[in-house]
Write a structure and sequence with these properties.
Blueprint: E1 10-15, H1 18-34, E2 43-45, H2 51-61, E3 68-73, H3 84-94, H4 119-128, E4 130-135, H5 140-151, E5 187-192, E6 200-205, E7 211-217, H6 220-229, H7 236-254
Parallel strand pairs: 1-2, 1-3, 3-4
Antiparallel strand pairs: 5-6, 6-7
Helix pairs in contact: 1-5, 2-4, 6-7
Length: 265
């Protein structure tokens, strides 16, 4: 369970409405000046039906004083079927199926799965938290009024959930291994050309040290996609290394800093 203590019985979920989130944060800041007890009221987005809702459940079960979540703003990416707000409401109203994936019953979204949580944790969340349906409401003053209404109705904390929340999976500890296994396809020298339209550069050499190609791009993804599409990388560790170095080069370019491959700060 998280050690953080959330001090309020109410939280706000603004779904996909970033301007609404910012407006509510401004109202909260002003309210906190007059009433320091308002400090820390949570205002957070929700953009995914599966992992996003799982994160909400995991957090709430560690905060037994949190009893109400106000859902407001536009439901995320309705055009492509992502409806986390409506899916979260369906969870509270109908629960999940015991189908191995914990599919949320009667959910409107395209991927309403809570497969990484236990059934007991999901049910404990449903018993602890009440959802206030203000989806599509984008007036910050109206939503703030809902907050005040529910804060004025204090609820006692539930008994802290002591069961297993997440389905157990194997865990591993990563270690730094300085040994390098050469990629039989060759290697890359990564540089950057500040001021160029395509400033990230990867020169491709075969194992004999003969330059085979030069790839330029605006972003790490543009460069490594070209490397992969041409079949110049055959090892996963080599691919991970190239991605890391391209990201370091991009960060140095953005910050106007010097970059040298393999030179760590």
């Amino acid at each position: 369970m998280p050690s953080y203590h959330y001090p309020h019985s109410v939280a706000i979920c603004t779904l996909a409405s970033e301007p609404l989130k910012e407006a509510l944060e401004t109202i909260l800041l002003e309210a906190s000046l007059d009433n320091p007890q308002m400090v820390g009221l949570m205002i957070a987005p929700l953009s995914t039906e599966n992992l996003g809702i799982e994160a909400i459940i995991t957090f709430c079960l560690g905060q037994p004083h949190l009893r109400t979540i106000i859902l407001c703003g536009a439901d995320a990416q309705q055009a492509v079927g992502w409806l986390p707000g409506g899916t979260l409401l369906a969870l509270q109203q109908h629960g999940v199926l015991n189908d191995g994936l914990h599919t949320i019953a009667n959910a409107p979204g395209k991927r309403p799965l809570l497969a990484n949580l236990t059934l007991e944790a999901i049910e404990a969340f449903r018993q602890q938290v009440t959802l206030v349906d203000a989806i599509e409401e984008k007036n910050p003053e109206t939503i703030w009024g809902l907050v005040q209404t529910h804060l004025s109705q204090p609820l006692s904390a539930v008994t802290p959930y002591a069961g297993v929340i997440q389905q157990p999976v194997p865990e591993a500890i990563g270690t730094h291994n300085p040994a390098i296994t050469e990629d039989p396809k060759g290697y890359f020298v990564i540089t950057m050309e500040a001021g160029s339209e395509n400033p990230l550069v990867a020169e491709y050499f075969n194992t004999e040290g003969l330059r085979q190609a030069i790839v330029r791009g605006k972003t790490p993804k543009a460069v490594y996609t070209a490397l992969l599409n041409n079949g110049w990388i055959s090892r996963l560790d080599h691919a991970a290394y190239v991605g890391q170095e391209l990201a370091r080069a991009e960060a140095a370019l953005t910050a106007n800093r010097f970059y040298m491959q393999d030179l760590l700060p």
